[in-house]
């Protein structure tokens, strides 16, 4: 695997030799370890390697066996820990820069299949009619059952202009349907902004990338240049799967007083116990401060944050921080609940593992993992019901998900949307409905956010849809005094 990897040295030496293991444990591998290494199991691994090399029907390369062994070991931990080979590592670096070649979908694993969390706006998959909640059962007619989520993603990546054929199963449909999709370079502009009504602004973040803060600063500055008396701002984080932590810290900082605690992490290692504040060192340690050009009014303008079951990770950090400080009203439905930290650990120059190392906590110490962010005002996706949101899988539904703090280990995946009856109603409503355009004239949740600003009745979600009259905009609270500082290094 290129450079020797200290953490895998004891396994590699014994396995490749096919004889007794030579145990040389590096300080890195021993860090935090209180129990001896399981030598019997390591010998079994060496034995299995030797049997495959000698007895399998066709020869298998050493590199393939070792890569698959590493991948299986990491994938067994939780849905977000992944071994990145050369191709996957390169693609991951491209995606955080806001571009990659593929079909444009955010996915998760469900019952051995690939579940669509959400199609990326304006992507080939989006234009092909693929929707959140769909299951991919075959890729180029190859069953995905049994494939890791990483392997399935690899099969959907490729060269620009090449085609991939997806077999899609949709709840409520009698038969799967086959759709050819042409791969293209997906350039995700992470921020959109516009005036949805006179005096009311809408800012959407679709994903937290390296350029998110620069885009946010430029687009909000342009809005305020043309509309200096904005009375309310809607921050739309629906279907935002997350992304880079510095982006989440920076976006939160843009709307909060300086120096506030934004998020903290807790894990097994000392380095995993951190507190992140609204300081440049946490959101932009190099180059110019992207928030320097942000309009000052963003610190005080009344806000509503829209979230749903597709809001995950970094978007939950932002929603949780703004909710804890009562800087904004969070509206919509409970978020995905992906509150775990993935740390990239390079193994060589072009391979790495993405390993879950900690859990995220809001400024007031609420755990996000498996819980998500519960909105202040629960509003369904449409006037008739919760639409696609009723079909979305959440973190708690994923197999081997990292348990939440109040969740018992081994708790079976549960349906976060209360049964088949509601799903069938949602499917019936969706059958002849066009895909929702977020920020468009038919966006029901956006309309309720505007009603909230204006002091008009807001139609709330079940158990029964009721109308309440919220406080007038002038009564919206500003940022409170920050909570006590959590312990942890500040780096």
Output the number of helix runs: 13
Q: What kind of sheet is the major sheet?
A: 6 strands, antiparallel
Runs in which pLDDT lies below 50 for 5 or more consecutive residues are 1-33, 413-418, 464-491
**What helical percentage do the residues reach?**
25-40%
- Principal-axis shape: globular
Note the beta-strand portion. Answer: 15-25%
Keywords: Hydrolase, Protease, Serine protease
Region (Disordered): 400-423, 465-491
Organism: Massilia suwonensis
Protein name: S41 family peptidase
Describe the protein.
- This protein has 491 residues and is an alpha+beta fold.
- Helices cover 26% and strands 21% of the residues.
- It has 13 helices and 21 strands.
- It has helices at 9-17, 27-30, 39-55, 62-75, 86-96, 124-127, 149-156, 212-226, 245-255, 280-283, 314-324, 420-430, 444-454, and strands at residues 82-84, 99-102, 105-110, 113-119, 135-139, 142-143, 163-169, 177-182, 184-187, 191-197, 200-205, 232-236, 261-267, 274-277, 303-307, 329-332, 340-346, 352-361, 377-378, 458-459, 467-468.
- The strands form five sheets. Strands 3, 4, 5, 6, 7 and 8 form a six-stranded antiparallel β-sheet that branches. A six-stranded mixed β-sheet has the order 10-11-12-15-16-19, with helices on both faces.
- α8 links the parallel β11 (200-205) and β12.
- α1 (9-17) crosses α3 (39-55).
């Amino acid at each position: 695997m290129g450079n020797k990897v200290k953490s895998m040295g004891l396994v590699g030496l014994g396995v490749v030799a096919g004889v007794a293991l030579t145990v040389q444990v590096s300080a890195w591998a021993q860090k935090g370890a209180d129990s001896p290494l399981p030598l019997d199991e390591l010998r079994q691994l060496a034995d299995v390697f030797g049997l495959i090399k000698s007895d399998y029907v066709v020869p298998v390369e050493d590199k393939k066996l070792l890569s698959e062994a590493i991948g299986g070991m990491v994938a067994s931990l939780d849905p977000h820990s992944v071994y990145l080979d050369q191709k996957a590592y390169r693609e991951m670096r491209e995606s955080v820069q806001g571009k990659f070649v593929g079909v444009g979908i955010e996915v998760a694993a469900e019952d051995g299949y690939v579940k669509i969390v959400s199609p990326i706006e304006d992507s080939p998959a989006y234009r092909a009619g693929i929707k959140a909640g769909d299951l991919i059962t075959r890729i180029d007619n190859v069953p995905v059952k049994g494939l890791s989520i990483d392997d399935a993603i690899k099969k959907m990546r490729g060269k620009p202009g090449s085609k991939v054929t997806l077999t899609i199963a949709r709840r409520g449909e009698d038969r799967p349907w086959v759709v050819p999709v042409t791969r293209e370079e997906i350039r995700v502009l992470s921020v959109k902004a516009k005036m949805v009504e006179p005096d009311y602004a809408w800012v959407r973040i679709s994903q937290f990338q390296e350029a998110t803060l620069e885009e946010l600063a430029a687009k909000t500055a342009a809005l305020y240049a043309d509309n200096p008396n904005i009375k309310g701002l809607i921050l739309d984080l629906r279907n935002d799967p997350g992304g880079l932590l510095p982006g989440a810290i920076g976006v939160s900082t843009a709307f909060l007083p300086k120096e506030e605690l934004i998020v903290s992490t807790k894990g097994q290692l000392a380095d995993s116990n951190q507190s992140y504040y609204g300081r440049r060192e946490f959101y932009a340690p190099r180059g110019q401060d992207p928030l320097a050009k942000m309009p000052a009014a963003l610190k005080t303008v009344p806000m509503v944050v829209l979230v749903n079951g597709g809001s995950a990770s970094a978007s939950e950090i932002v929603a949780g921080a703004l909710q804890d400080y009562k800087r904004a009203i969070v509206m919509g439905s409970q978020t995905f609940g992906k509150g775990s930290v993935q740390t990239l650990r390079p193994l060589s120059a072009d391979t790495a593992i993405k390993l879950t190392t900690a859990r995220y906590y809001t400024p007031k110490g609420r755990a996000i993992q498996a819980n998500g962010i519960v909105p202040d005002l629960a509003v369904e996706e449409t006037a008739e019901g919760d639409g696609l949101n009723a079909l979305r899988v959440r973190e708690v539904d994923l197999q081997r998900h990292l348990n939440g703090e109040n969740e018992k280990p081994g708790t079976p995946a549960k349906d976060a949307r209360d049964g088949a009856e509601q799903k069938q109603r949602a499917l019936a409503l969706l059958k002849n409905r066009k895909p929702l355009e977020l920020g468009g004239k038919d966006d029901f949740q956006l309309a309720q956010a505007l009603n909230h600003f204006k002091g008009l009745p807001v139609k709330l979600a079940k158990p029964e849809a009721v109308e309440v009259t919220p406080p007038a905009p002038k009564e919206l609270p500003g940022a409170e005094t920050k909570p006590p500082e959590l312990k942890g290094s500040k780096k």
